[in-house]
Amino acid sequence: MNKLNRPLSGWGRYPVETCASERPERYQDLRASSPTQIARGQGRSYGDAALGETVILTERVNRMLAFDVVAGTLRAEAGVTLAEILDVIVPQGWFLPVTPGTRFVSLGGCVAADVHGKNHHHDGAFGQHVIDIELILANNSRVTCSATENADLFWATVGGMGLTGIIGEVSLRLIPISSPYMQVRHHAAANLTATFALFENAALDDAYSVAWIDCLATGESLGRSVLMTGHHAAVVDLPNTLQSAVKIKPAKSMPFDLPAAALNPLTVKLFNQFYYTREGRKTQPFFAHYTDYFYPLDGISHWNRLYGKSGFVQYQCVIPTAGAFGAVTALLEKLAVSRRPSFLAVLKKLGAQDQGMLSFPLAGYTLALDIPMRDAGVLALTRELDAIVLAHGGRVYLAKDAVLNAQTFRIMYPRHAEWLRVKQLVDPHGRFASSLSKRLNLGAQHG
After folding, report:
1. Are the C-beta atoms of 313 and 402 separated by less than 8 Å?
2. How far apart are CA 236 and CA 246, in angstroms?
3. Crossing angle of helices 321-338/377-391, nearest 10°?
4. For each of the chain's 447 residues, which pLDDT tens digit applies?
5. Are 101 and 295 in contact (CB under 8 A)?
6. Which of the residues 195, 197, 199, 407 has the least number of beta carbons within 10 Å of its own beta carbon?
7. Which residues contact 220 (CB under 8 A, 6 or more apart)?
8. Nearest CA to 228 among 296, 174, 176, 177?
């Protein structure tokens, strides 16, 4: 298979590396064909998880193989995107059990990162809903694994960042819906104390919840937010105007890289004030199409250009519940003092820890911050954020990471040794490797 050397990056556009890429045209062509390689779906992991010496582009291995419209199960090749799946299943009355904040990600990527959504506190992460996987190993044999068959390999692969083999096919359980709409309600919170109180208020709990945080607010307003809760709307509850056929709105595109100076503390502060006021006013329940509720940023193609050519780091961490308020307070204070404007800051409540050996979620709160990559000071800032997260027993999300070091990773992910034993059984020569795995020394024993 021909290889093409070209510069690649993750969605954050940092780092950029020259990688040899292969693009198999058919499922049968998926194989480990280089000394080291990593599969790459849509390139939507933010850092260097899908970069390496050779990347196997799976975007053309994207057939849907079987959809049981009665039982609500789907089997598909790993390169298919969530957007392609939703286009098929939603009109048939089904929805994804878990979805991240963009639908332009591959099915295999969702397994590899064990992505979570706004319903993790109720339904867990993506891997909890996978029936089985066909995995292509380093010796090019193909093996089926699930929670009951080759279970160790399955839980090493769910959240394993593509390092146990190439995820070839995935079977998934879906959830039933009766309309493409969500019934949504917004709750404004004046500060972080009020934000946590909203999350912990059982009367406000819903199937999905997420809070947008004004990360530049300080003092008594530190952590002010808008909590957005919702659930799938029944068709009988919709007004007549929404019960007619729905057309998908075409996405607008960010046509060029924004100058680095365009996003500064003043412009972000003005935007945050506008957004907090506009969204906080929506105190009464309203209906929103699922694309608007789950994927607001998908409405702008290439929104990552907002941060300019130097890109950005998305720093996402989770803190166990007991220390979450103190840790999130410290993280927001540290970011505010840094005067590095974060266009996006999101807080979610997570449920019980998932079974994937390297899965990110644990019971607590997860905070995601976009930090423009403008100078070396960003790396120093993330080290300070790491120290806060470590002090509170938390961890950083590998699918977003570009800056963590190996020592910190090993403290944050205590099941690494267990994962490594499985990895070395199926890939003893380390043929599946990425820039992330090399940076974090994932293939090495604990020292």
Report:
1. yes
2. 16
3. 160
4. 778 999 999 999 999 999 999 999 999 999 998 999 999 999 999 999 999 999 999 999 999 999 999 999 999 999 999 999 999 999 999 999 999 999 999 999 999 999 999 999 999 999 999 999 999 999 999 999 999 999 999 999 999 999 999 999 999 999 999 999 999 999 999 999 999 999 999 999 999 999 999 988 889 999 999 999 999 999 888 888 777 655 545 556 656 666 665 666 667 666 777 666 777 777 788 999 999 999 988 877 787 887 888 898 999 999 999 999 999 999 999 988 887 767 778 999 999 998 999 999 999 999 999 998 888 889 999 999 999 999 999 999 999 999 999 999 999 999 999 999 999 999 999 999 999 999 999 987 765
5. yes
6. 407
7. 190, 191
8. 296
CB 75 within 8 A of CB 42: no
In our burial notation (b when 16+ CB lie closer than 10 A, e otherwise), range 159-193 reads bbbbbbbbbbbbbbebbebebbbbbbbbbbbebbe
Rounded CA gap, 18 and 51, in Å? Answer: 9
Which residue's entry shows tokens 């329940």?
285
Question: Which one-letter amino acid corresponds to residue 9?
Answer: S
Of 286, 40, 44, nearest in space to 186 by CA: 286
Query: Measured between alpha carbons, how far is 313 from 440 in angstroms, rounded to an integer?
Result: 17
> Which pairs with CB-CB distance under 8 Å and at least 24 residues apart come from 417-424?
417/445, 417/446, 418/357, 419/156, 419/160, 419/357, 419/358, 420/444, 420/445, 422/152, 422/153, 422/156, 422/164, 422/357, 423/156, 423/160, 423/163, 423/164
Q: Which amino acid is at 309?
A: K
Instruction: Report residue 164 as tokens.
Output: 């146990």
All structural domains of the chain: 64-177 (3.30.465.10), 181-405 (3.30.70.2520)
Say if CB 146 and CB 88 are below 8 A apart: no
Residue 314's pLDDT is: 93
Token code pair at residue 374: 């403008």
Please count the CA atoms within 13 angstroms of the CA of 79 that sit on its side-chain side: 17
CA–CA dist 441, 424 (Å, integer): 14
Cβ atoms of 233 and 218 within 8 Å: the answer is no
**Dist CA 240 CA 409 (whole Å):** 52
Burial of 11 per CB tally in 10 Å (0-12, 13-18, 19+): buried
User: How far is Cα 305 from Cα 220, in angstroms, rounded to an integer?
Assistant: 33
